Amino acid sequence: MMAITHAQLALRNGQDKPEIWVAYNGKVYDVTHSRLWRNGKHYEHWAGQDLTRELADAPHTEQVFEKLTQVGVLTVPA
């Protein structure tokens, strides 16, 4: 699995690169083709960042990530 830095993730925000990625629990997922993440935004959540803490406020569980393709693992910042 590819190691992805926070900087690399941040560029996949729906604006800077063609890919749209989000991270959850140390895993990075591709949401590029999800109609729910058009333009890098899903309700009040933005792509290109770690959504682990934000999931507590979501109306769904972490099982939603099982439907997505994992593209890598998020590296721990130094």
Structure explained in plain terms:
This protein has one helix at residues 6-11; strands at 2-4, 21-24, 27-30, 41-42, 45-46, 69-74. The chain is mainly beta and 78 residues long. It has one domain (2-74): Flavocytochrome B2, Chain A, domain 1. The strands form two sheets. The protein has a four-stranded mixed beta sheet. A two-stranded antiparallel ribbon has the order 4-5. A hairpin with a 2-residue loop joins strand 2 and strand 3 (27-30). It starts with a strand and ends with a strand. 19% of the residues are buried. The mean pLDDT is 92.
Q: Number of helical segments?
A: 1
Largest sheet: 4 strands, mixed
* Number of beta strands: 6
Q: What is the topology, as strand order, of the major beta sheet?
A: 1-6-3-2
CATH class: Alpha Beta
